[in-house]
Write a structure and sequence with these properties.
about 325 residues, homotetramer
């Protein structure tokens, strides 16, 4: 079927490629003309403005947004004046689920349908397909099924889940209609929250292995330093090899571990990285949702906070503690 | 080669099967005679006592222990009087790494070699192979290589890690000599710590999805109840389907997720489980190691604490907080 | 000066008493007529409706709300039609700071001034005075200074802070103008967040003391139970006595500890409490603010989550972990 | 009575002063002769060696150690050859409770008594007295009562706890016999764990207030940056004033808050501190004890980990997360 893609960055461009390869006709637009040109060379139909994009595709038109969440509303506002009843906007970015609900509500009187589609897969999606978590009206989601089916990974080589034969949904194909407007991004939001937690679990584990030689270093003996209870942490663990061995037969095997093993194979001391870890919104919203639900989420929250902390040289909290220690105990900070 | 297996529970018995299938000759012993008999029927050579076990196998003898960590020392003490110089004890259980160091030290004057072998794979190991993390003397570990190679998963269908071709270790076969005595169990200990963290990350995420309909329930309006800021959490997420869809193309795909999807396919409301989660030692030791190393491990610790908490109806800490609230604010507990 | 109090619960009634004792003239209203009558007997001027309340007090009128945050907007909407330019609404409850900002904005065109006043002190405020954290327009806050001065504790017997003589604010009297609309409740919100953290710190500490005899109990020896590394935790600590001794000379002395010591003196085994700990909103908002600021707040978040957890028999996260353990290891839950 | 003090640092010297002021006869020793001389000038009897110290004091002799925990065993070993049956060693430092148990056991055959005495009070103890948490044999602790009574704060100006009149212990005087050998340091250990938690709670709260102006700063709009949900955090909170106002009438008043207010009055921007926070052992042991007891201690653990983190520029865990993000999403770290 026909689909317009707005936003041709890392993910948008590869989704277009995946769609064209499977016989869909793609119309493409991006602020950066070079991105448009590149896909036109590969068979897409380009546009130099949103208006032109709208004019080229057949009705009912479907526009897939693959742009930063922070500018989605702006681009919707630019696009909508050119749209008509029954047109569809699919937001494949990382929008906040409440923005989805609001947008669906705002577009409804115009007869425009809004679908939110959480998309996971990163730079590997072209090859592996993208896991899609979809929210919106049932009929519209069904109408778009051919597009979702193509973008999603399909059954592929992943073993079927015993006991799941009886279920009639598309989850085994790698895409799922999760519920009404916002439900797709809600599930994707939690997905990213889980991702933070899983990443941090590996990170901390490798961190503990990395310091398993700590007793080889001389430590000070004074009232400011925790006294040693043992002196035997003298292991020099080959962390790249551990990441590799855990990939086979162990309980913690995963795709993130595969990637970690690859990163460590290429750069064993991780010297390419300073350790400043960004967060792009969904981790924060996951915690806010947990709090609204009164559900404790210690692990996911700690993973988020570790990212906050990684981007700072010191915290104000630490300074307050340091000041208190000086006040009650005359303790001066260690250099 | 010849190997004696002591302890024929879930894991020990399957390791014997895996070894025999690959042509090794296995001598088996267990407190429970039925366990011995079952394997004898499959081709193993049984023994009714440790002494008999020792007498049957050729020198230098190798004894693999697959028993609860709490009784390992006891069984070593029973076995050692029957051993001679150059015999080998392999502890495949979940021993504390400092116990390994001590045992290696204690057995050294007798010329007996001690190898610690952290083993992951659970009930699936017969089919998938067991991931092995090994500590001990280099020559002894090399001598046992045929056994490790058989028990480990091998390269199998897991894709090779790009960039890892140049490495000369056995990690790609699923087993790894991690260092001197204790190093194997140290790495396995951290493995389990990571396992707790990854499990809790999924658990919390699914928990947030599970409460995504919380605003459908009526809530009280009084000074004791946090006022609602929103009223739109009305999603009824099909969690079994989400677990399934995340298996394909998403960043959080993993073997633990595969198993979760299977558990949910078979028992969608998890009614088989009360939520009391055991911990078997290695998670605790991981945190203790982190603290000795002065490495923060928020995520792994929270995962451990959630298990502690799951086994209690209430905590003393909660009672203290409840008592304080009554004292300063006259707040009475909600029923 | 004259002041109208709306809401005569635990805190509102005592604030009226404190004001009258210091010579202010108080006009009082509450849904519950008995609460009004009680204060009329003590000298307040009662009203049976908001309209009557407005009619009795002199202009410019000041109305102090001491009601649950969840109904504040409703009562404002009922009151405002009776108000005139230059009247003042003071919200002494636990409103969300963004509601304050909105209300101040909405009331501005009508010439009505809005002041938010975070109030700490609980049932002890009549005697100790209430700590006041105030947000709003500078002139209005100054106009209300006589009221704040009376309600606040004053210098009292608390020792002056060395080095603070040079500061010209009212902080030493126990009340503070923190900034524009919402600033008062923002500071009060964080105050409550800190309160949760401090309470939980004591709670956990006493919890560790309470289990210091754990090795006196027999434990199981099996692969599902963490093996003991020590067997010496046989202390039976008198927790009430510890709370008492920490009150003198120790670093952790505090008013919350004083109250804990009192609770334990009266009810040493805390049998009056089940451990279900409510949260009333400000703890949640504190964490949400921390996340918006990208400031890690591990301790305050854990304190909040412990409250969530205290009100549940089990969590879904725990069930997921339990299900995983069964799937990979055949582990059955302990009874 | 007579008492020998070994270790004349900040705390030891002031304890001698407090003892002499109350009529006790003090014998003093320190590696640093200047410390001895200073106290001799104030009336103490000095010694230039442990042997000389022992020779001067009357039997049964009591030796109070006020030295770093890491060297306690060494000094005990030097002292013991000069001691006789019925002599007493009191360890007032921060020893691990299991070292106390071992020492008591080792000294028992010699008839030497060992008392562990956790001591809180810091540089303020001379004036305020020291809170003492004592472990050891009942008769020995009673024999030393006059010394404990002097060093402890006594009832002082702290209000008695209602309901505590009926209790017959010395807790109201600021010292407490907590149990057998190690019990004193166990309680002191937990005290310090609580101290970490309370400090961190304040630290985090003030940190959130300190960033309450975060929306005044321009933020980037790209897929790597969490999009803003609000733009109104524009409060410039006077944190020193908030610390001061919370001292009066609020729920979070405490001695640590008093000291924080003082530190902020003297150095409002905390420019004297870099935020590197030491930990001296007892916080770590508290968490280890919690884990042994299977008691969750999220808050105290987070407070400890924040200290670990404060002393590092980056963590290995952060680097691993950063590497993963690059691998799956092509995300490059922010500069």
């Amino acid at each position: 079927m026909q689909l317009a893609m707005i936003g041709l960055g890392r993910m948008g461009a590869n989704m277009v490629r995946r769609l064209m390869k499977d016989g869909h006709q793609c119309f493409v637009y991006d602020n950066n003309k070079e991105n448009v040109d590149a896909l036109v060379k590969e068979g897409a139909i380009g546009a130099t403005s949103l208006e032109e994009l709208v004019s080229k595709i057949e009705k009912p038109r479907a526009f897939w947004f693959m742009i930063p969440a922070a500018i989605t509303d702006k681009v919707i506002n630019e696009l909508v004046p050119h749209l008509e009843k029954d047109d569809i906007i699919i937001d494949g970015g990382n929008s906040y689920f409440r923005d989805d609900r609001r947008r669906a509500q705002e577009l409804k009187p115009k007869g425009i349908h809004y679908v939110d589609c959480g998309t996971s897969g990163g730079v590997w999606g072209l090859e592996r397909g993208y896991c899609l978590m979809i929210g919106g009206e049932k009929e519209i989601v069904q109408h778009l099924d051919p597009v979702f089916k193509t973008i999603a990974p399909g059954k592929g080589s992943v073993a079927p889940t015993p006991g799941r034969e009886k279920f009639q949904d598309t989850a085994q194909e790698g895409y799922l209609h999760c519920g009404a407007a916002g439900a797709g991004h809600f599930v994707k939001m939690v997905h990213n929250g889980v991702e933070y937690g899983v990443m941090a679990a590996y990170g901390e584990g490798f961190g503990i292995l990395n310091s398993a030689d700590c007793h080889k270093k001389k430590r000070e003996v004074d009232a400011e330093t925790a006294p040693e209870m043992h002196n035997d942490l003298d292991y020099e663990i080959d962390i790249a090899a551990v990441a590799e061995v855990w990939r086979r037969g162990s309980v913690v095997g995963s795709w993130l571990l595969d990637l970690t093993a690859q990163a460590l194979a290429e750069n064993p001391d991780l010297s390419n990285f300073s350790g400043k870890v960004s967060d792009s919104g969904e981790g924060r919203w996951t915690i806010m949702a947990a709090i609204e639900e009164a559900v404790s989420a210690e692990v996911l929250t700690s993973a988020l906070y570790a990212r906050f902390r990684s981007r700072k040289e010191y915290t104000y909290a630490d300074k307050i503690c340091s000041a208190m220690r000086f006040m009650f105990g005359g303790h001066h900070e260690k250099k």
